[in-house]
Design a protein that fits this description.
about 200 residues, mainly alpha, about 0% strand, disordered N terminus, signal
């Protein structure tokens, strides 16, 4: 059985499943400890996609991909970066019934992403990448209904949805196929589901 998306290719989405393995977490540092594990792979994926976009003459789209990576995968930041995302989640959502009582569709969308991953790293083609893209877009949509507009999580998901265009699929596919750090993420993603797993 595959792991839930908590080990997925976009490490920032790990924040959305922080409750899966840190249900009792009470600090930004606890969640950041998990996020940092997957940060380098996500940075490499987005850098590879941006480079491929530049090589295809799509400098404007490449700039958007790099900006998303710079804004949301950085360690530092008050309202941006992994610190800003973790702070928003811990302060405004973690352990609050107003969040947990309304996140069913989001949790379901997150758990469906792993089913789009191929059985081996060689299986990443444009169709597979597009299937993953479509599931991540559903996460963005559902997350934006749960997380308040103006907050870090809502902003990150809105901007992520904006760069997950069909035309960008070939460029993200290259990153999924060739980057060593992304391959590590894939191996974790395809691994067995943890024995204990709490819902968000």
């Amino acid at each position: 059985m595959r792991r839930p998306i908590c080990g997925g290719a976009l490490c920032v989405l790990l924040l959305l499943t922080a409750g899966t393995s840190t249900a009792g977490a009470d600090s930004v540092i606890d969640i950041l400890g998990q996020l940092k594990t997957f940060r380098s792979g996500a940075l490499e994926l987005f850098d590879s996609a941006a480079t491929a976009l530049v090589e295809s003459g799509e400098e404007e789209e490449a700039a958007k991909v790099r900006k998303w990576s710079d804004d949301w995968l950085s360690i530092l930041g008050v309202s941006t970066g992994l610190t800003g995302l973790a702070k928003d989640f811990v302060v405004n959502y973690l352990g609050r019934s107003s969040y947990h009582d309304q996140n069913g569709y989001l949790v379901s969308a997150i758990n469906q992403v792993s089913s789009a991953f191929p059985d081996s790293a060689d299986g990443f083609d444009e169709d597979t990448t597009n299937a993953i893209r479509q599931r991540v877009i559903v996460i963005c949509r559902e997350g934006m209904t749960v997380f308040a507009a103006g907050g870090s999580l809502h902003s990150m998901l809105s901007e992520l949805r904006g760069i997950l265009k069909t035309s960008n699929v070939p460029h993200f596919t290259k990153g999924l196929q060739s980057n060593a750090e992304v391959q590590k993420l894939f191996k974790y993603m395809a691994g067995p589901k943890p024995e204990t797993s709490d819902e968000l």
